[in-house]
Amino acid sequence: LYIVQLATLDASPPAAMIVTLIFTAAFAFGSLVIEETQGTEITWCSLPVGRDRIVLARYLTATLGVVAGLGLSWAISGEALGVGAFALVFFQLQIAIALFLPCYFRFGAGKGMAVFSVVTLGIVVGLAVAGALLAAVADIEFVPDAERIAAMEDRFRAVEPLLAGALVFLALVVTAGSAVLAVRWYAARDC
Among residues 68, 1, 75, 88, which one has the least CA distance to residue 28? Predict the structure, then answer.
């Protein structure tokens, strides 16, 4: 179904980006849902494997899911979105991983999802309020001007690979920091 949706979008970048984001998120987080319904954590705790390896394996699996999902999307859509859009989707999903997995390992799947939802909602509301305050204080008026937009697009295309690389690097650094936190929290939690 995903391939049909992506292939029939007539290279519409906004729609292709949304479909790519949803598909890749399902690809990256799908195994967590399966593991929770199968009670995999009980098995993990009975194995002679350190909790740090369990946490790092989960982070690696989720990140590889993101990379595989984006790779499949790239193979299907080609360069309809551009490298910057794929880097942005990678960044968004890695930040979701970095926020969700510590909650998952600290509180379990059910409570972890609730905590993740509250934290994410707080971040989104905070960013919206900050943006509104900034626009009000700075008296910014967003008037689309064709010449300005064209000039900005040209400047963006020139630095797009650099920005894409910076987004990917930042996402990986945040994910690594999150993994350190998740290892500590999971070590302190009872199975």
Answer: 68
CA distance 83 to 161: 7
Coil, helix or strand at residue 98: helix
CB distance 41 to 35 below 8 Å: yes
**What does the buried/exposed string (b/e) look like for 118-128 if buried means 16 or more CB atoms within 10 Å of the residue's CB?**
eeeeeeeeeee
* The two structure tokens encoding residue 56: 């790092």
- CA–CA separation, 74 and 94 (whole Å): 18
Tokens of 150: 């064209």
Cβ(174)–Cβ(95) under 8 Å? yes
* CA angle (23 as vertex; 17, 24 as ends), nearest 5: 85
Give CA–CA dist 5/43, Å, rounded. 38
Tens digits of per-residue pLDDT, 146-185? 777 777 777 777 888 888 899 999 999 999 999 999 999 8
What is the b/e burial string over 134-160, where b = at least 16 CB atoms within 10 angstroms of the residue's CB? eeeeeeeeeeeeeeeeeeeeeeeeeee
pLDDT in tens, 145-154: 777 777 777 7
